[in-house]
Amino acid sequence: MSSSDTGTVTYLFALCASRPPREALSAVPGHPGGGPLRTLEAGEVVLVVQDVPAGDFQEQALTERLDRSEELERCALAHHRGVAAAASHGPVVPLPLATVYLSDDNAVAAVTAREETVLAALKRLAGRTEWAVKVHASVREAPAPPSPPPPSPAPSSSGSAEQPATAGAGGGRSYLSRASARRRVLRDRQERARALALTVDRALRAYAVDAASHRPQSEQLTGVKAPQLLNAAYLVDDARRAEFVGALEQLRADERLRAVEISWSGPWVPYSFARPEQPAATAGAGAGAP
Amino acid sequence: MTEVTDWVDPTATTVHVPGPNNSTLADLLERILDKGVVIAGDIKVDLLDIELLTIRLRLFIASVDTAKRAGIDWWETDPAMSSRAARDALAEENETLRERLAALERRLDGEGGHDTGTPTRSDTGTPAHTQTQTQTQTNPYTESPTR
């Protein structure tokens, strides 16, 4: 039982439609310094929770801890594994990192107040998993900027120094036109790659019940020296999983999509689709969710 | 549900990659960090549990800072997140342009009416002028746009 007297607070990992097996929960440690993972009930909803040290989850401590990347990573992993354990037997609504209540009663009251919404979300997510798909501009095709045309031959006459201003202007103009041609080629290539990413997105949506887009990740983050054109998530019926993965493999092998690289990971707990009353998300380059 | 065992990656204690194969910490973070209205936030608002709401807001800000260092930069393209920064940048740019216009007008006036002989072309610059110049060099993103 959590209470501020015992110095613990109630950390929520996920909400389930039924109680996960005890072994699944006891197999994960949860957050360091906390108790074993356990369940609470709020009407028909089962909460997977853990007693965690209040000191670690006070505003100040949390802010300070999560501002250190290794601590953020440890915390994210602990959270993810708790959610994954809760998902080991059936649908879950995963909760965001650091969802903390002062007591079990508060947590139960909070979920009870939203029981219908939560049950609707559980129903929507049952038998479905999330697949993450990224599309990058192809690294193979990316380089090869058009080879610059040979520099306009310098006036070979010995009197070349005669009109430096004119020569400079001519060189400047041709430099500018070369630069703008290069930019045009680059832009065209990017436009084409973006269009291909949208093709991939459209193709995959045919196999998914929902799609969501995350912000494209930076090159620094991905380590890929090419822009990320699509960072999408698809909610796929387990029954269509093979079809979906088959479609991914087909897209990857498609000659017409050579200018892009497709990568994916999954199945994920449907993190990207757990928010209730979410407007139809638009996956696709540039189209950000509100 | 048979495949759900996939969730618990037995090697996850040693590898850096937390989720399914081929995923990264960034993939996980962009899924579990609080980025807006989420069910938990709603619950807390319903509860009027201000204390926790504050924690979440602070957590969000801390996460953004950490994420920024890790190279995650979704807030820069997130209209909700960057609108303030964009507004600030626009206002700043406006201000700068206005200053420059005023300076140009002064200069024109000065050239038109030689009789006044006001030192409008002086390169020392008025304090306001120098100020705008330094302002234009500030990148709005180098400062935390969330605060």
UniProtKB/TrEMBL annotation, chain A:
Compositionally skewed regions (Pro residues) per UniProt: 143-154
Protein name listed in UniProt: GvpL/GvpF family gas vesicle protein
Keyword Transcription found: no
Keywords: Gas vesicle
Family: Belongs to the gas vesicle GvpF/GvpL family.
Localization (cell): Gas vesicle
Pfam families hit by this protein: GvpL_GvpF
Coiled coil regions in record: none
Region (Disordered): 140-174
Main location: other
Organism (species): Streptomyces fragilis
Organism superkingdom: Bacteria
Membrane-spanning residues: none
Keyword Amino-acid biosynthesis listed: no
